[in-house]
């Protein structure tokens, strides 16, 4: 693939989770729109209210099919506002969509919706997952047959409001040399509807084996968890938020620890950066978004795909974002 390709020129979509189901590539993005809510650090301007699903037979030239609206806030019994980055997994003949949404108290929870087909529509459960909090769920079906969820995000993602899976009286963001807040990992129950255990910290270490510090903003986790497996290693990738990088760390099992390895995508036009990585028909791809088509409106993002390449030592060749 020579140049990154915009996938849905007629609409604003972001946070693509790409998966191969039944030999087709499916994309589960957030659906941006102009809600008129002013931009702030809490992310209120990302006021999304539904999801579409897209599919393709070929990433580089093929047509992108829009399967239409597959889930809306008004269909979710516990909904407050803001359907952010979702993910989908297949198990026991069903497709499970995991979505973060603020409840009626304006607290992010993670919900599940179910379909018989990868293209939806998805029917939501009555309540969010017990014990869930924060946002950006990513589901990893491991080779051991277990399914793991990675989640969490700072600032508007509310992770700083919790410690040891309990809500704090006041949000507390570590600073400077203090260890950065970790993304969370949790094994899912076999029916995919609840956590099978308490979420754990996913540790991201530097080259000396020390947890990345909160002040190390070009490397520490902010949001947008993604997991993939390549050549015997687990690759955990994520956004650094206010420094606008997609980075990765590698480990030997789904719980980690992970060691920081480098940058995958340099800053794009826009504030957020968010991605997924998938192998399809023998090539690896980085699905992501930027705000070039909306001329820099940070809340109106457009889906893109670029080819991703590895070096012989398993490191990833960084891709240049559109802000460079
Ligand atoms: O789309 C809303 C939020 O913006 C996502 O959940 C974050 O990862 C960021 O991309």
UniProtKB/TrEMBL annotation:
Residues that bind Ca(2+): 85, 274
Gene3D superfamilies (UniProt xref): Glycosyl hydrolase domain, family 43
Enzyme type, top EC level: hydrolase
EC number: 3.2.1.37
CDD domains in the record: GH43_CoXyl43_like
GO BP term, example: carbohydrate metabolic process
Keywords: Calcium, Carbohydrate metabolism, Glycosidase, Hydrolase, Metal-binding
Gene Ontology molecular function terms on file: metal ion binding; xylan 1,4-beta-xylosidase activity
Family (UniProt): Belongs to the glycosyl hydrolase 43 family.
Name of this chain's protein: Beta-xylosidase
Species of origin: uncultured organism
Lineage of the species this protein comes from: unclassified sequences, environmental samples
